[in-house]
Write a structure and sequence with these properties.
single chain; mainly alpha; 5 helices
Length: about 140
């Protein structure tokens, strides 16, 4: 593996770690902000955010292990689909059986999306600053 590829993988791992940190910070912020609203909103953000953050951790773990070695790719792909089925089942159960605000639930689910946008913006600003270009 070339040095450039190793450096790129290291940068990607750092980005993933920063996204995980941003996920947790946003989850705490959204959850604390929801305390000013009804119980349904609190439950929606709590469950949606937890599912979102945990899903990101599981995906990162599965993909990381799949890329480490090429053996048993079929098993790892199967585990990914099991994880996906579990996530969809938990979303269904949450929406149907738990008394929550659907809008707050969707806001909680979008924590990872917001984290990725924040990390992308940070990377763009840092890269442009390092290159001497102006945004």
């Amino acid at each position: 593996m070339s040095v450039a590829i190793k450096n790129r993988m290291k940068t990607n791992n750092e980005s993933i770690r920063r996204i995980q940190i941003i996920n947790i910070i946003l989850y705490i912020f959204f959850l604390a902000s929801s305390l000013f609203f009804s119980k349904k909103v609190i439950v929606g953000i709590a469950i949606g955010g937890a599912l979102s953050v945990l899903n990101f951790l599981f995906i990162e773990s599965l993909i990381g292990r799949a890329l480490e070695n090429n053996t048993k790719i079929g098993l790892k792909l199967f585990l990914y689909f099991i994880k996906l089925a579990g996530l969809l089942s938990l979303i269904y159960i949450s929406i149907v059986y738990v008394e929550l605000s659907i809008i707050a639930f969707v806001i909680g689910l979008s924590i990872v999306f917001v984290s990725v946008i924040i990390e992308s913006a940070i990377n763009t600003l840092v890269r442009d600053k390092d290159n001497g270009t102006r945004i």
